[in-house]
Specification:
The protein is an alpha/beta fold and 272 residues long. It is 38% helix and 15% strand. The protein contains 10 helices and 8 strands. The chain has a 6-stranded mixed β-sheet with strand order 1-2-8-7-3-4. Helix 4 packs across helix 6. The longest helix has 19 residues.
Length: 272
Amino acid sequence: MHPVRELARLLLPVACPCGEPDVRWCARCAALLAGPFSRVERGAPRLDRLDGVPPVPVWALTPYAGPVRDVVVHWKDRGRADLDRLLAPALRRAVRRLGPALGPAQSPAPGGTLAVVPVPSTGAARRARGREPVAVLARAVTSGLRDAGVPAHLVPALARTGPGRDQVGLGARARGRNLAGSVRMTRRGARALGKRSVCILVDDVLTTGATLAAVERALEGCGHDVLGATVLAATPAPGARAAERRAMAEGVKATYGSEPESVTDLCRPVHR
């Protein structure tokens, strides 16, 4: 080992969030994020609109469990901004493969672009972290779509209002109450989106779906269409079969096969 590097590790030891020493992230944790997307909206009860319209489709890289949970917690709340270099490329690669299926449905008018809208954090969370981690993911999603030839632009269109607390530790009903009316369109976002845009949402973790549902309502209330959402990880549904969880963890292409050919099997119809 290089002597300077060895000294640096003694003074500032590094470790993967799973506990493996001397590496910023280990091969095992990186492998959990290497697969293609899986559809996960059926495990999020708060995404059910209760109006006969199917829930917004959500694509996730991996279950939010085990080492992945450790990685995300360290990345968001324990100062491990260096994990951007693990998480952002993984999401960009997955979106690059999904992009060809989204292209045909991405715009209600020829020449339009897909608006990538990050889910906003509370003011308290932003101050505590000193940054917006989801913005890193949203930039990766935008780049992945462009890599796939889908015209896309990043639009931080929304903000959280009121004293809404962080969602961590809240149950499904409490999450819904906490977010009721707490997401609004910003003036800058309204100008960037125009009268009508097709949007894809970006968040870090899907739990009950309350956050994505609130964001979807805010955008649709302003006349915009929500095509779907991408997240790093999704909390496994309580009743999910063990085989399904293993398939998702291993990156099995359960939803769209080796090469997505049509948006029909991937998306619900865009709201009109």
